[in-house]
Amino acid sequence: DAGITQSPRHKVTETGTPVTLRCHQTENHRYMYWYRQDPGHGLRLIHYSYGVKDTDKGEVSDGYSVSRSKTEDFLLTLESATSSQTSVYFCAISESPTPQHFGDGTRLSIL
Amino acid sequence: DQQVKQNSPSLSVQEGRISILNCDYTNSMFDYFLWYKKYPAEGPTFLISISSIKDKNEDGRFTVFLNKSAKHLSLHIVPSQPGDSAVYFCAASVTEYGNKLVFGAGTILRVKS
Predict the structure, then answer these.
(1) Which distant-in-sequence residues (6+ apart) come within 8 Å of B62 by Cβ?
(2) Which residues of B touch A100 (CB under 8 A)?
(3) Per-residue pLDDT for chain B (113 aa), expressed as one digit of tens each?
(4) Most CB atoms closer than 10 Å: which of A9, A12, A69, B38?
(5) Cα–chain center distance at B89
């Protein structure tokens, strides 16, 4: 799996609570990404990082923030989770912009 | 408005035959295309890609064809094997902004033995 670890793999939480998902890589790749996968939509880019402390928004960034303080870690935070953020979240890494290599996902349920 | 469309939600083929998965796009700025395969409870795995300067790219049993005038690409798998049963995603990007992949909704391929 290209040295990508997502944690937790499953999480159930309540509306209004903060949630942080972690992506850890051992490949020393420059680029890291967060996507969400929903039925009928494929994968949609939330945020990505092109270096430590360098991030940019993707297609569906509202309600999400990210941080990258070290090359190997990319955190996705939902400040106040809503039911519409129930989804499967995938982290990806790449050295050049493409192709991107994906982790095994985090299934997040917000009740 | 989906910029990358996979209009067939599912496809079933017999083992040994050809599988053809299709993808259409609307953004004429896209110039790099990728196919990913995804098994349940796993992340997508990169299969093959093609740049818009080519119309075909081949890697073993997998061939991707690109028709720029029709804004259409297809993935051919020959011969199909039961282990190919998975969800296949088409993705596209503008090379200049290559980080931002746009994915189709996916096609479920089932290869029957």
Answers:
(1) B35, B47, B48, B75, B76, B77
(2) 46, 101
(3) 789 999 999 999 999 999 999 999 999 999 999 999 999 999 999 999 999 999 999 999 999 999 999 999 999 999 999 999 999 999 999 876 677 899 999 999 999 99
(4) B38
(5) 5
